[in-house]
């Protein structure tokens, strides 16, 4: 049964660490699914200031208005909450025994927490990030991947395996509706950039090509691409993949899984690009793990 944000037992999560000054800094939380760690990096300096260890397949992240970070555990059917700059879990939410949560987003207007699940194929919404979730489904959607709220509390979620499969849960509604797209799009990670729905366009059919972040203008459940950001990797080549990215003003930060000289797996880096300009990276942070997701938790400024 889902829990009411009960604190998790710290003993299950290994030895985590955090520099004391981290609580006063803006922080990037970078999830390493394979390693079971989340690396905490100061923003924009790029200094490793902490590591949260012992997690079960941390694959997605989201942050609330207070700077608390939620981490989805694909192999643990749970979401774990950490305070900004903290290493002890301050709360958990549990889904069904076989659930595989992939991604999450917090509504800035209500504090509701939305979660996309690979299995069962649902979007779950926890009211005020507590209690039992309300579950949503939509015919034709087979693999819920990512979700994001806009500034007005409208929720968008997508299915990466199906073309033109983006759905909207308008604020106050209890029904998911399909967003009709003017262009043919397979979508990966998505995020509200403050004006548009930013969508990682996933190539299909072995076509490859550049990594594109499309900007969608959505109105009355119709989506239209109004611009594209092309990302290049640190070796003057095209970025091979950007998983869960995060947009902070004029900067986009995400995992760049570049490849070796013969096309095989080579590594992963946490990479910064200009947004929406794109182009070559402005900063690359490597050798901190196999990064799959990134979010920024902003320190609460006190004046």
Write the layout of secondary structure elements.
Blueprint: E1 17-18, E2 26-32, E3 37-43, E4 48-52, E5 58-63, E6 69-73, E7 78-82, E8 89-94, E9 101-106, E10 113-117, E11 122-126, E12 134-136, E13 144-149, E14 155-159, E15 166-169, E16 177-181, E17 187-192, E18 197-201, E19 211-219, E20 222-231, E21 246-248, E22 251-256, E23 269-274, E24 278-286, E25 291-297
Parallel strand pairs: 16-20
Antiparallel strand pairs: 1-4, 2-3, 2-25, 3-4, 5-6, 6-7, 7-8, 9-10, 10-11, 11-12, 13-14, 14-15, 15-16, 17-18, 18-19, 19-20, 21-22, 22-23, 23-24
Rounded to the nearest angstrom, the distance between the terminal CA atoms is 42 Å
CATH C-level label = Mainly Beta
Mean pLDDT, nearest integer? 86
User: In CATH terms, what is the architecture?
Assistant: 7 Propeller
| Number of strand segments | 25
CATH topology: Methylamine Dehydrogenase, Chain H
Uncertain ranges? 1-13, 259-266
Measured by DSSP, the beta-strand proportion falls in over 45%
Q: Given the C-alpha coordinates, what overall shape results? A: globular
Name the helicity range. Answer: under 10%
């Amino acid at each position: 049964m889902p829990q009411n944000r009960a604190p998790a037992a710290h003993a299950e999560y290994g030895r985590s660490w955090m520099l004391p000054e981290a609580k006063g800094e803006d922080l990037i939380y970078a999830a390493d699914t394979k390693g079971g760690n989340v690396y905490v990096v100061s923003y924009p300096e790029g200094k490793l200031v902490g590591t949260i260890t012992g997690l079960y397949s941390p694959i997605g992240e989201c942050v609330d208005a207070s700077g608390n970070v939620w981490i989805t555990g694909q192999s643990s059917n749970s979401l774990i909450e950490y305070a900004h700059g903290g290493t002890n879990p301050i709360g958990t939410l549990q889904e069904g025994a076989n659930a595989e949560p992939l991604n999450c987003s917090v509504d800035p207007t209500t504090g509701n927490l939305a979660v996309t699940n690979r299995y069962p194929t649902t979007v779950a919404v926890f009211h005020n990030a507590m209690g039992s979730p309300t579950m949503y489904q939509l015919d034709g959607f087979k693999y819920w991947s990512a979700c994001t709220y806009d500034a007005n509390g409208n929720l968008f979620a997508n299915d990466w395996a199906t073309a033109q499969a983006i759905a909207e849960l308008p604020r106050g509604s209890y029904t998911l509706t399909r967003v009709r797209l003017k262009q043919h799009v397979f979508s990966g990670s998505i995020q509200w950039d403050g004006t548009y729905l930013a969508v990682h366009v996933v190539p299909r059919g072995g076509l490859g090509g550049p990594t594109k972040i499309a900007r969608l203008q959505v109105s009355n459940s119709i989506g239209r691409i109004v611009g594209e950001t092309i990302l290049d990797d640190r070796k003057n080549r095209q970025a091979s993949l950007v998983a869960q990215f995060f947009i902070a003003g004029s900067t986009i930060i995400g995992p760049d899984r570049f490849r070796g000289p013969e096309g095989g797996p080579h590594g992963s880096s946490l990479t910064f690009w200009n947004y929406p300009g794109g182009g070559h990276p402005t900063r690359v942070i490597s050798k901190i793990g196999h990064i799959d997701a990134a979010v920024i938790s902003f320190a609460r400024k006190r004046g």
